[in-house]
Amino acid sequence: QVQLVESGGGLVQAGGSLRLSCTASGRTFSSYVMGWFRQPPGKEREFVAAISWSAGRTYYADSVKGRFTISRDTAKNTVYLQMNSLNPEDTAVYYCGGRTDSGSAYSVYSVYHYNYWGQGIQVTVSS
To answer: Which residues have CB under 8 Å from 1's CB, separation 6+?
Structure first.
């Protein structure tokens, strides 16, 4: 049983910043990869960023590269998403996902790579 809990969302003006956190817990939790996806209203869930747990290798969607930074605190089982230079196109429900073992047939860019998800948190960027 793994639980992911997101925090840090909210309303921000264009050009502002937010920092999202996602903390994982569970009796047998271990993480291979953790990542962030987002789902704007009326659209499909899309990849934002991911990080490998062991080496800290990062992956970013082109739309956020240079603006967002993903990081992790392995001791706290927590992944962060620092979001800078936000614009209204970043408005979405943001989901934290985790992969608890290796061997997935899908890449970290795919929603199918992740076997656990948080409930999602709203990020709204106003102009």
So the answer is: 26, 27, 28
Bridge partners of residue 94, in order along the sequence: 38, 121
Q: Which residue has the tokens 């962030």?
A: 36
For residue 91, which of 22, 24, 31, 14 has the smallest C-alpha distance? 14
Scan for tokens 């009326």, then name that residue.
42
The one-letter code for the residue type at 9 is: G
pLDDT tens by residue, the chain, 127 residues: 789 999 999 999 999 999 999 999 886 567 789 999 999 999 999 999 999 998 999 999 999 999 999 999 988 999 999 999 999 999 999 999 999 887 789 999 999 999 999 999 999 999 9
| 75 Cβ neighbours under 8 A, 6+ residues apart | none
